[in-house]
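Dear Dr. H.,

I hope your travels went smoothly. While you were away I took the liberty of generating a structure for the chain from your last submission, since the lab meeting agenda had it listed for discussion. I wanted you to have the full record in hand beforehand rather than looking at slides cold. The sequence, exactly as received, is reproduced here:
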Amino acid sequence: MKARNILFFYFMVFMMIFAVSLYFPEKGVELSNGVLLRFPSPSILFKKNVHYADINKILKGENTVSDSSELSLYPPGVDTNLSAEMRAKLHRLQFPDNDRSTIYNFLESLFQISQDKNQALRIMHFGDSQIEGDRMSSTIRYNLQSRFGGGGPGLVTIADVVPAQSINRSVSPNWKRYTAFGGNSIKSPGKAYGPMLSFSRFTSFLPDSLISDSIRYQAWVKFSPSKSAYSKTSNFNRIVMFMGYNKSNTIVELLKNENEEVTLDTILKNQYFRQISWHLSETPEKINFKISGNDSPNLYGISFDNGEGINVDNIPMRGSSGVDFVKTDLKMLEEYIRLMNVKLLILQFGVNVAPNVVENYKFYEDWLYNNLMALKNHSPELNIIVIGISDMARKNEATGAYESLPNIKKIRDAQKNAAFRAKCAFWDIYEAMGGENSMPSWVYANPPLAVTDFTHFNAEGARYISQMFVNALIAEYTDYEQGRKKTIKTDSNNIKNGKNQ
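The corresponding predicted structure, in token form, is as follows:
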């Protein structure tokens, strides 16, 4: 047989294989006795090379923070004046129409604390499972407390899904958690979910007819400083409990160390939302709350701080896409913001949107925008930073490689558009971590910086990425501080020269 005939024969065989591959079911055809017949897809025949993001520069350019080393808010070798070279390395915050005044209220509050450490402000960090266990909030908190003062882990819930590294907690088994978010969660009959969009009870919602003076229920919750927490997190002397909607008087007993009673308080019934505060001389080794009553109150959370400097509340909302704020009574969040002097909200969501692959995410943009505006309408002086979706990867069965989900950029853009429409700042964590196909690089790093679900950072990776966010935040503050000091100096000179008359 001639060579050209052989070549033609091979070509025809290949074309037949290719034609079959185009129409053969991707999942195969099941034959008798459970035998599955599969055929290679065209993507196998024309397999493309998958390039993972090079994150070496990111890892060399950003520091993690450890308690045993000197605190560094910037990459090594760069001074705190933020030179032009440093600015090029930063993944800066982004602003609508480049208007940085969208976070000036927060930056001014930081400046005031830098002048008077006795002042206090709070940041609330809301997010999905990416921030569970205080993984990212803890590093943000530690950096800011190291620079501006403060201590303690902030607001913590009673019953939670994942233990937090910031404080140890154990609870009696009769606590139930109610949330405004999550499809499988227990829902409240009303909208009074509180500042964390969740609360805990040790009785179910009892009708008035079943509340008896002769039947008392009780529960307990114990806390102790965590050895895995940053040192400043384990330094607190003020405890604030938030509760409400108790249909009977509630007894709250606070004990420290080995059952040393601090106080016994009676909380009168029919309180909408209130706080109970305790001031201690020092951080106790153990804290034990015993709570009892004929009916359980809604217990919205307990805050641990030292009443000065900065604190950061870690509020993970597993299963949420950041659009659940309109489902709750925002007046309660507004009251918490007022009581605790909250100046900044950080909203970090997106991983629960990604499984819903659609062509256009304008619907999500509108939902998120409505939630942002609801928050701003209730607290107009509050500043908000939206952190976009991080990279997520799934295994491509055809290529065998892990690749970024095709809709990550679309979701990121929807979040950014919503933030800008609502006059909020935006931080692009997707680009900061390396962009397309960067999550596999974080998973395969040595040591690993993300877990093998190719979605979540591990503890070390969370420290890296949150440090990058802190760098961006401090960069904005440094710019603001320098401009603020120039203004003060100019005003002082004008007064001295009589130009104010």
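Two observations you may find useful: Residues 459-496 form the longest helix (38 residues). The domain at 155-307 is CATH 2.60.120.260 (Jelly Rolls).

With kind regards,
E. W.
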